[in-house]
Design brief:
The protein is mainly α. It has one domain: Orthogonal Bundle (Helix Hairpins). The protein is built from five helices and no strands. About 10% of the residues are buried.
Length: about 180
C-alpha cells in the first residue's frame, strides 16, 4: 500500500486508517514509529488534496482571466473600427447625394445606395452601444475572476511546497518500512 504514489495514497487514507486501528493495540517500537509517520501522513494527505484543488482552481481562473482579457481587447478593437467606419461613411453619403442631382436617369439606383448608407450609419450607434455592454460584461467578469483568485488562500508556490513536504514524508515512511 505504501508503494503507491501520493495521489493514490490520499484516496486510500480511509483504508490506511483501518489498518492503523487494527494494529494499534500492540505496536512494536519500529511499528510505533511507522504508525506515527502514517498519522502525520494522513494529515498531510488532506493538505495535499486542498493544495491540488487550489492549483486546479487557480489554473482554471487564470485561464478564464486571460481569455476574458483577449475578448475585451478584441471588443475594444471592434468598437474602434465601428467608430472609424462612421467617419468614412459620411463623405460617401454626401457624394451620393450630389450624384443624385446630376444623374436623373439613374435616380432610383442612387436613392437605393443613399438609403443603404443611411441605414449603415443608423446602426452604428446601436452596434457601439451593444459592444460597450459586452465590454462592460467582460470587465465585470474579470472582476469576479480576480475576486475568485483572491479567495484562494496562499499561493501556488505554497501549495506546491505542501505537496513536496507530503511526498518527503511518504518517502520517509517507505524508508522506515
Amino acid at each position: 500500500m505504501l508503494e503507491k504514489n501520493i495521489a493514490d495514497l490520499v484516496q486510500d487514507a480511509d483504508s490506511m486508517q483501518r489498518v492503523l486501528l487494527a494494529i494499534k493495540s500492540n505496536p512494536s517500537p519500529a511499528l510505533s514509529k511507522i504508525l506515527s509517520s502514517l498519522s502525520i501522513f494522513e494529515v498531510q494527505a488532506l493538505k495535499v488534496e486542498k493544495a491540488q484543488r487550489n492549483l486546479s482552481d487557480r489554473e482554471t481562473l487564470l485561464t478564464k482571466r486571460n481569455f476574458n482579457k483577449q475578448e475585451a481587447k478584441e471588443l475594444t478593437q471592434l468598437i474602434d473600427d465601428l467608430k472609424n467606419s462612421s467617419l468614412r461613411t459620411n463623405p460617401e453619403l454626401s457624394q451620393l447625394e450630389i450624384k443624385r442631382v446630376k444623374l436623373e436617369r439613374e435616380l432610383e439606383n442612387v436613392k437605393a445606395a443613399i438609403d443603404h448608407r443611411k441605414s449603415t450609419l443608423a446602426q452604428i450607434p446601436d452596434a457601439i452601444k451593444q459592444k460597450k455592454q459586452e465590454l462592460l460584461a467582460k470587465v465585470r467578469e474579470g472582476r469576479v475572476i480576480r475576486s475568485g483568485l483572491e479567495g484562494i488562500p496562499g499561493s501556488a508556490e505554497e501549495d506546491k511546497q505542501r505537496i513536496a513536504e507530503a511526498d518527503a514524508i511518504r518517502l520517509e515512511v517507505l524508508n522506515a518500512i
